[in-house]
Design goal:
Layout: H1 16-27, E1 31-32, E2 38-40, H2 42-48, E3 58-60, E4 66-69, H3 74-83, E5 93-102, E6 111-120, H4 125-142, E7 149-154, H5 155-164, H6 169-181, H7 199-205, H8 210-223, E8 228-229, E9 232-233, H9 234-249, H10 257-268, E10 270-271, H11 273-286, H12 292-310, E11 319-321, E12 334-339, E13 348-352, H13 356-359, E14 368-374, H14 375-382, H15 385-390
Helix pairs in contact: 1-4, 4-12, 5-12, 6-9, 7-9, 8-9, 11-12
Length: about 400
């Protein structure tokens, strides 16, 4: 495995504690990088949804291409990795970072510091997952936060569960999005109504290139002088039409009552990792699911727990939740958050995103896992320890 060279990362607001955190990551072999602040906007919109456009700072270069101020580090670090990788199979490398990110938020500053790590290309998946969460929690302890409540989830587990239930692709996507947004499954219906007023349009765009459909919808609304309809942007309207067209193409099928009941049971599973794994195995057995990929996902889940325990992490205090799903489309497996007692927003969060680098242009799949620490939240909690301890 090659390592990127250390360097970069000197934002004006960095403190000695922040630099100590970066040194902790570098000491574990994660070389520091500083991706450009200006990034192409398209990957963020494609992977995080059009709703992120309302929360990022967008500009244009001289050619008219849309750029944005860096809203997070994972995509920029992965772009950096691909830009410096040899052609063919990209090398493995571990990265750390420390610097400002820019994102509109109602109750937090629009510019804030993040630190984190990204491990790209390692094939020892459960060990890499355990290392990332271990380094994250050790880093928080260096900042004086050893009282973090850890919540675990697994996007790969729920994905293979839906495959085992043979949920149609369109309904599967809508189910995963509902889980990620914490929404009811009531909207995952069993088909379109015959009186749908857009039936002709939906038939016309079935199988069409999604980018072309988005451009078409945006052009039509632009000609009409309309920027938003019912609070939705043109991109969001296009996504809605594409989703409905895909559902129509697959017979309009959604979650049937039996499958929905199983998904709701999975969603309700909670407890320490060992208890949760046993509960998911029991659910699969009771549902009569004979699906080797689901068995493999559970084996990976249990192996990861073993690696975390081997690192000395208190896995018996970690809590898995079947209803926990991070709201970014690129997560494909293990996910986690660490939150201070009484707080709502996490101090650290991350997970596995094995499909991201291929989406960004890698010719082959590249496994990857990482996490980000919200340093402003850590500092805010440190200033209010009484509330954090008793909230």
């Amino acid at each position: 495995m090659t390592r990127p060279e250390a360097g970069g990362g000197t934002a004006g607001e960095q403190s000695q504690d922040h630099l100590r955190l970066l040194a902790h990551f570098q000491g574990a072999g994660y070389g520091a990088v500083t991706p450009p602040v200006l990034q192409p906007v398209e990957p963020f919109l494609e992977l995080s949804g059009e709703d992120i456009r309302r929360r990022i700072f967008v500009t244009q270069d001289a050619s008219g291409s849309e750029l944005c101020l860096r809203p997070e580090f994972t995509i920029p670090v992965c772009r950096h990795h691909l830009a410096h990788a040899p052609k063919g199979a990209p090398r493995s490398a571990d990265y750390s970072y420390l610097g400002p990110v820019f994102r509109l938020a109602g109750d937090e500053p629009d510019e804030f510091l993040q630190a984190g790590i990204e491990s790209v290309g390692r094939t020892d998946t459960p060990a890499a997952d355990a290392e990332v969460i271990g380094l994250a929690l050790e880093g928080l302890a260096l900042l004086g936060r050893s009282d973090v409540a850890v919540r675990l989830g697994d996007m790969g587990l729920v994905d293979t569960l839906l495959d085992a239930l043979t949920v149609p692709p369109a309904a599967k996507r809508r189910t995963l999005r509902a889980l990620a947004m914490g929404r009811s499954l009531d909207t995952i219906t069993n088909g379109l109504r015959t009186e749908d007023p857009h039936a002709g349009l939906l038939a016309a765009i079935q199988g069409q290139d999604p980018k072309g459909v988005r451009a078409f919808v945006e052009d039509v609304l632009s000609i009409a002088g309309i920027s938003r309809v019912g609070g939705r942007s043109a991109g969001e309207i296009a996504e809605r039409f594409l989703s409905k067209a895909a559902a129509q193409a697959s017979g309009g099928s959604g979650l049937n009552p039996e499958n929905r009941a199983i998904v709701e049971r999975y969603r309700a599973i909670a407890g320490d990792p060992d208890t949760a794994a046993a509960a998911v195995r029991a659910l699969a057995r009771e549902a009569g699911l004979d699906h080797p990929p689901l068995d493999a996902a559970l084996d990976l889940f249990e192996e990861r727990t073993g690696f975390m325990a081997a690192r000395g992490l208190p896995v018996e205090r970690f809590r898995f939740s079947g209803g926990f799903a991070r709201n970014l489309d690129y997560y494909t497996g293990f996910i986690f958050e660490g939150t201070a007692p009484g707080a709502k927003a996490p101090l650290v969060g991350g997970g596995r995103y094995d499909g991201l680098l291929q989406h960004l242009g890698s010719p082959v799949p590249v496994p990857a896992v990482g996490c980000a620490v919200w340093l402003s939240r850590v500092a805010a909690d440190a200033q209010n320890p009484k509330d954090a301890a008793h909230g």
